[in-house]
C-alpha cells in the first residue's frame, strides 16, 4: 500500500512483535474467512491475556493524514460473552501519552476479520505500537499498518466498491452480494467468480483463498443472480489462460460499477466494462494470449478463422422460475487458433466484444452491433457506463463525510440502482422480450428461445417483501422517471401472466410473504410518479387483495378465508406475517383507490388495514397466530416472543410486535398509549438476542446469528422486517430515542467496505443500502402509501447533503452542532416542530437546517397515523347470520361459511336472499359480494328491515362487473344502517343462473 510508514503481517521478513504475545497460523473457525491463515499471509498475532502489550518500537512522525490501521478477529466463546472484542491497538507518543478512547467494541463481529482505522493527531511522534486487551477473550490481529491516507477528491461513482458485501457466506451475511459490473438496472451483470460451479455464492472475498491464502478467480461470468438465496441463471463463463484458477491480491483489483479489473500474480491482466446487453473484455498476457469458455449447462461454438464465439446457456437454479435459454455472440479483434474450448492468439493483448439475448442468437449479434460496434475502445464502453452511474449517484452531493461514509453512501446508491433488471431488448420489431411469466411448452433450440416473445418492457429480479420499505420510496424521490419505467415493466407481468411477481426470479417464484408491489407502486403514484399505467397497476394490486390465487407462487396465501375471518389462520404457514403484510398493502392500496376514483374500495381497504388488531393477543401484549376457530396458537404460559419462526417470517415475536408502520398511533393505543409503547420499545432494545431460539426453523439460521451479533437487544437490523422499528419511537413521544438508535446503526453496522463487508445482513436488491441512504439524510419513509405521503425526520449524518431532483429543484439538508440528537429544525428558514415532512415540500425544493446536540431534546411532534383519536382501532366485523334463505329454495349456507372456495349456484338469474342477523342490530357500513365460477350478479338491491315485512332500500347497483372469478368486491352504503333483517334482491346476472361464493355485511360497534 503506498504511503506505508510501518507494516507487519507477521510473515517472514516483516517486523515481529515483542511482549507477551504469540504468532500462530490463524483462526480455526469462521463462517466467512479462510481458516488456518491470517487475513493476508499465513500467520497472525494471537492475543490471549489481558494487559498492555508493547508490540513494536517505532519512530514515526505524524502528519495531518497519518492513521493506524489493523484487522482483528475476536474469537467467540460458549455464551458468547463478547469479551474478546475488548481489544484495540494503540500507540505511545514521545510524551508518554496515547490515543483518546478505544474504538467501540460493539462494532467488532465475532469469528470474523474486522478492519479498524484510528486517525493519529498531527504533530506528534509515535514511539511504540501497543496491543491493549481489556477482556478475558482470545483472538487474532493482522496487517498492522501506520500509513498516510489523505482524502481524495473524487466523483461519487469513484467511491463505489462493488466487492462490498462479498465477505459473506450462507452461514453469516455481511451483504451476500457479488461484484456486479453493469449499467443501472441493466439486462446483464458481469462478475468475477471464485467458484465456477456455484449458482449461489459466486464470489467470496476471503473464504475460498488458496493454500497460500491468496484469493483466486476461476472465471469471469455473465450473471443474472438476484440474490444467492434465489440462485443464478443463464451463467456463461470466460476464462483467461488454460482454465485453471488464477491467484491475485485484492490490492490489484478494480471494483467499480463500470469497470472490473484485476492483475493476477502470474502477470495476466483482465479488464471488463459493461453495456446493457454486453461487455467488452480486454486481456493482457505475459506471453501469447489464450481465452477459454465454459457453461455447465449449455453450449460453446468457436469460429477461429473469424475470431467468433457463440453459445447458449440453460443454467437455472431451483428458484429461477420462468427462465428459458440465453444466447451468446462474441467476437475477438483478431483471428485465433482453436485450443480445446478456447482460442489462442499470436499477440499478448486481445479484446473480446460479447453480448447476450434471451430471444435468439441473431438478436444477441444485433445487441452486440448496436451497443459495441467494431472499433469501439475499452475506454469508450467504460466511460459510457461510468456516465450512466454518475448521473444517478451524482444526484446527491455530500459535504463533511468521511472517506468511509462516502464509500458506504455511494456504494449504497449503486446497489439501489443495480436492481431490478430489464429483460427486454430492442429488436427490428420494436422493444420485445422473452416472457418469463407466460407458460409455453415449445422447446428452445441452439439459435432461438421456446419462450413466448412479446412486445413491451419487462422488469425482473426483485423481491418486493424486501424492497418496498425503502427502495421504491428512494426511486420515487431520486429518480421518479426511472421509477415509473421499472413499474411499467412489472405491470407487463400482470398483462401477460395475470399477476405481478412477489419474487421475480425472473417469473413467479414462490417465496416470502405479502404482495408488496401493491404498496410500493401505490406509494410511487401518490408521490407523483405518473409515467406508468396506474390503472392496470391498480387492477393487479386489487386482484392480489380480493382474489384467492390459483397457486402458491402468486397472490396472497390464505386469502380464501382470511378476507372473511379478518385474520389469517394457522392453516396458512406464517399466516400472521401474511396478515400483517396484507394490512400494510391494503393501506397503500386504499390511498391509490382514492386517488383513482374508487371510493368504495378505498373505504373498504382502509378498514382492512386495521385488521392487525385481530392478531393482537391482549393477554400477552404481542401479535400471534390463531386457529380458524379463533383460538390462539400459544397459551400465555407457553408464549415466548424470543422464539423464531412459526407465525413469524425470518424473525420472532419481539420484532413482529412492531410490524404496523402504517399506524403507529393505533399500535400505541393497543398497548395503552404512547408511554406504554415507549416502555415496550425500551425493553425490546434492552433484551439480548441469544440467537438460540430457532423455534420452527429447527436449527440456527444465519439471520439469528446476525441479529445476535449486532448487540442491539432484540432489534434485528440485519433483516428487513425490523428496519422501521426505531422510528416508531416517534409515535411513542420519544423522538430522541429514535435518533440515538438510528445514529448507532449508521456509525457501527455498515463498516468494513475495504475488506468486502459493509452490511450487517443480506443486502437484498438495494434495501439495506436504501435504509442507510435515507437515514443518513435524516429521512425515513415510514407510512408508505399514505394519501398524504411524507417522511419522518431524524438527525442527518453529514454536514451537508444537496439532492438534485429530477424536476430541476434542490433539497439541501445541512447540520450544525454535534451529536445524534435534533435540537431544532428550520425548513426554508421557518421553525419546523413536526418530526415529519410532506413529500411535496421536498419536491418543491426545500432547505432543511438541523441543529444537532449531544443531549436529547423535546423537539419533534408525532407524525400522522391511520388511527388518529388515540383509541385502539376498531375495524368493521361481519354480522353473523341467525338464519338465511333463498327465494328459489337453494341452500345458502355456503354464502356465510367464511371461504371463497365454496359457492351457491341459484336456480335462477334473479334470486332473493333474506338474512336475519344474530344479536342486537349493528350499523352496517360496507357489504361485500364474492363471485363464484359463473353467473356473477350484475345488478341488485340491498334492503333492510326491522320486522322482516317492511323493507327499506339501502343500496342499489346496476351494470356491475366482477373481473375475476371468486373475487370479493366491496360496496359502501351512503350511510350506516342497523337492521335485524337484510335482503339481497338480484336483478340480473352474467348467465342463466346467478352464482355467489360469499355475502358479507360489515358493521361497526354500537
From TrEMBL:
Every copy of the Glycosyl hydrolase family 92 N-terminal domain together lies at 160-337
Q: Which UniProt keywords apply?
A: Glycosidase, Hydrolase
- SUPFAM superfamilies on file: Six-hairpin glycosidases
Q: Where is the composition biased (Polar residues)?
A: 163-177
Q: The Glycosyl hydrolase family domain covers which part of the protein?
A: 363-853
Gene3D superfamilies per UniProt: 2.70.98.10, alpha-1,2-mannosidase (1.20.1050.60), alpha-1,2-mannosidases domains (1.20.1610.10), GH92 mannosidase domain (3.30.2080.10)
Cite the EC number: 3.2.1.-
Protein name from the UniProt record: GH92 family glycosyl hydrolase
Q: Which organism is it from?
A: Amycolatopsis cynarae
Amino acid at each position: 500500500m503506498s504511503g506505508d510508514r510501518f507494516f507487519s503481517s507477521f510473515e517472514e521478513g516483516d517486523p515481529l512483535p515483542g511482549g507477551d504475545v504469540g504468532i500462530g497460523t490463524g483462526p480455526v473457525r469462521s463462517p466467512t474467512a479462510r481458516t488456518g491463515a491470517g487475513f493476508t499471509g499465513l500467520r497472525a498475532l494471537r492475543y490471549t491475556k489481558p494487559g498492555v502489550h508493547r508490540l513494536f518500537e517505532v519512530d514515526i512522525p505524524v502528519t495531518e493524514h497519518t492513521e493506524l490501521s489493523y484487522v482483528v478477529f475476536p474469537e467467540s466463546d460458549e455464551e458468547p460473552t463478547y469479551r474478546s472484542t475488548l481489544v484495540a491497538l494503540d500507540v505511545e507518543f514521545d510524551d508518554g501519552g496515547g490515543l483518546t478512547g478505544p474504538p467501540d467494541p460493539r462494532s467488532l463481529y465475532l469469528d470474523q476479520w474486522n478492519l479498524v482505522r484510528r486517525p493519529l493527531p498531527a504533530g506528534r511522534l509515535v514511539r511504540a505500537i501497543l496491543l491493549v486487551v481489556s477482556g478475558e477473550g482470545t483472538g487474532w490481529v493482522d496487517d498492522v499498518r501506520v500509513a498516510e491516507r489523505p482524502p481524495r477528491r473524487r466523483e461519487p461513482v469513484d467511491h463505489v466498491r462493488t466487492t462490498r458485501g462479498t465477505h459473506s457466506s450462507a452461514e453469516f451475511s455481511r451483504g451476500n452480494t457479488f461484484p456486479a459490473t453493469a449499467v443501472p438496472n441493466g439486462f446483464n451483470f458481469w462478475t468475477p467468480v471464485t467458484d465456477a460451479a456455484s449458482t449461489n455464492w459466486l464470489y467470496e472475498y476471503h473464504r475460498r483463498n488458496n493454500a497460500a491464502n491468496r484469493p483466486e478467480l476461476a472465471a469471469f461470468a455473465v450473471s443474472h443472480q438476484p440474490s444467492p438465496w434465489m440462485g443464478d441463471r443463464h451463467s456463461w463463463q470466460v476464462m483467461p489462460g488454460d482454465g485453471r484458477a488464477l491467484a491475485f491480491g485484492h490490492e490489484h483489483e478494480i471494483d467499480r460499477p463500470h469497470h472490473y479489473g484485476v492483475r493476477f500474480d502470474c502477470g495476466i491482466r483482465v479488464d471488463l466494462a459493461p453495456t446493457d446487453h454486453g461487455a467488452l473484455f480486454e486481456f493482457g498476457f505475459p506471453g501469447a494470449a489464450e481465452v477459454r469458455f465454459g457453461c455447465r449447462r449449455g453450449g460453446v461454438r468457436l469460429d477461429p478463422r473469424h475470431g467468433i464465439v457463440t453459445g447458449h446457456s440453460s443454467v437455472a437454479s431451483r428458484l429461477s422460475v420462468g427462465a428459458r435459454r440465453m444466447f451468446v455472440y462474441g467476437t475477438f479483434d483478431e483471428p485465433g487458433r482453436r485450443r480445446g474450448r478456447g482460442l489462442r492468439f499470436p499477440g499478448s493483448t486481445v479484446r473480446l466484444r460479447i453480448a447476450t439475448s434471451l430471444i435468439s442468437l441473431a438478436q444477441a449479434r444485433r445487441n452486440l452491433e448496436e451497443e459495441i460496434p467494431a472499433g469501439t475502445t475499452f475506454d469508450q464502453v467504460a466511460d459510457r457506463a461510468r456516465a450512466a452511474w454518475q448521473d444517478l449517484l451524482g444526484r446527491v452531493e455530500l459535504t463533511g463525510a468521511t472517506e468511509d461514509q462516502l464509500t458506504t453512501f455511494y456504494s449504497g446508491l449503486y446497489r439501489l440502482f443495480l436492481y431490478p433488471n430489464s429483460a427486454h431488448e430492442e429488436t427490428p420489431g420494436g422493444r420485445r422480450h422473452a416472457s418469463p411469466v407466460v407458460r409455453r411448452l415449445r422447446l428452445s433450440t441452439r439459435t432461438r428461445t421456446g419462450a413466448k416473445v412479446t412486445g413491451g418492457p419487462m422488469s425482473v429480479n426483485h423481491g418486493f417483501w424486501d424492497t418496498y420499505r425503502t427502495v421504491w420510496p428512494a426511486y420515487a424521490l431520486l429518480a421518479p422517471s426511472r421509477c415509473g419505467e421499472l413499474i411499467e415493466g412489472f405491470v407487463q407481468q400482470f398483462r401477460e401472466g395475470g399477476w405481478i411477481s412477489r419474487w421475480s426470479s425472473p417469473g413467479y417464484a414462490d417465496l416470502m410473504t405479502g404482495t408488496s408491489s401493491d404498496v410500493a407502486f401505490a406509494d410511487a403514484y401518490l408521490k407523483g410518479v405518473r409515467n406508468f399505467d396506474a390503472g392496470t397497476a391498480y387492477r393487479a394490486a386489487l386482484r392480489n387483495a380480493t382474489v384467492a390465487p390459483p397457486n402458491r407462487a402468486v397472490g396472497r396465501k390464505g386469502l380464501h378465508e382470511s378476507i372473511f375471518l379478518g385474520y389469517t389462520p394457522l392453516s396458512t404457514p406464517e399466516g400472521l406475517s401474511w396478515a400483517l403484510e396484507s394490512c400494510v398493502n391494503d393501506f397503500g392500496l386504499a390511498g391509490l383507490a382514492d386517488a383513482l376514483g374508487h371510493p368504495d374500495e378505498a373505504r373498504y381497504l382502509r378498514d382492512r388495514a386495521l385488521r392487525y388488531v385481530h392478531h393482537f393477543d391482549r393477554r400477552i401484549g404481542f401479535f400471534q397466530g390463531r386457529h380458524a376457530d379463533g383460538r390462539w396458537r400459544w397459551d400465555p404460559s407457553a408464549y415466548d416472543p424470543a422464539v423464531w419462526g412459526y407465525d413469524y417470517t425470518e424473525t420472532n415475536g419481539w420484532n413482529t410486535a412492531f410490524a404496523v408502520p402504517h399506524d403507529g398511533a393505533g399500535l400505541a393505543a393497543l398497548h395503552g398509549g404512547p408511554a406504554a409503547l415507549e416502555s415496550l420499545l425500551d425493553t425490546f432494545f434492552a433484551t439480548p438476542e441469544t440467537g438460540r431460539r430457532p423455534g420452527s426453523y429447527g436449527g440456527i439460521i444465519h439471520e439469528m446469528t446476525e441479529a445476535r451479533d449486532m448487540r442491539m437487544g432484540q432489534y434485528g437490523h440485519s433483516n428487513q422486517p425490523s428496519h422501521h422499528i426505531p422510528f416508531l419511537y416517534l409515535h411513542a413521544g420519544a423522538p430522541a430515542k429514535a435518533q440515538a438508535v438510528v445514529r448507532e446503526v449508521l456509525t457501527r453496522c455498515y463498516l468494513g467496505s475495504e475488506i468486502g463487508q459493509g452490511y450487517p445482513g443480506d443486502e437484498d436488491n438495494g434495501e439495506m443500502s436504501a435504509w442507510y441512504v435515507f437515514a443518513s439524510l435524516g429521512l425515513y419513509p415510514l407510512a408508505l402509501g399514505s394519501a398524504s405521503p411524507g417522511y419522518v425526520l431524524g438527525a442527518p449524518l453529514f454536514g451537508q447533503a444537496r439532492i438534485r431532483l429530477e424536476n430541476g429543484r434542490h433539497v439541501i439538508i445541512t447540520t450544525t452542532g454535534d451529536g445524534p440528537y435534533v435540537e431544532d429544525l428550520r425548513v426554508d428558514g421557518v421553525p419546523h416542530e413536526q418530526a415529519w415532512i410532506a413529500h411535496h415540500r421536498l419536491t418543491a425544493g426545500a432547505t432543511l437546517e438541523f441543529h444537532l446536540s449531544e443531549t436529547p431534546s423535546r423537539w419533534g411532534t408525532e407524525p400522522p397515523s391511520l388511527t388518529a383519536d388515540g383509541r385502539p382501532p376498531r375495524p368493521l366485523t361481519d354480522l353473523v347470520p341467525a338464519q338465511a334463505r333463498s327465494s328459489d329454495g337453494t341452500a345458502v349456507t355456503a354464502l356465510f361459511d367464511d371461504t371463497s372456495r365454496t359457492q351457491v349456484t341459484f336456480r335462477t338469474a334473479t334470486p332473493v336472499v333474506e338474512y336475519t342477523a344474530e344479536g342486537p342490530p349493528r350499523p352496517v357500513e360496507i357489504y361485500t359480494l364474492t363471485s363464484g365460477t359463473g353467473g356473477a350478479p350484475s345488478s341488485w338491491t340491498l334492503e333492510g328491515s326491522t320486522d322482516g315485512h317492511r323493507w327499506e332500500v339501502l343500496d342499489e347497483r346496476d351494470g356491475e362487473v366482477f373481473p375475476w372469478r371468486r373475487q370479493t368486491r366491496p360496496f359502501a352504503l351512503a350511510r350506516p344502517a342497523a337492521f335485524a333483517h337484510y335482503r339481497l334482491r338480484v336483478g340480473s346476472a352474467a348467465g342463466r343462473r346467478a352464482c355467489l361464493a360469499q355475502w358479507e355485511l360489515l358493521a361497526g360497534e354500537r
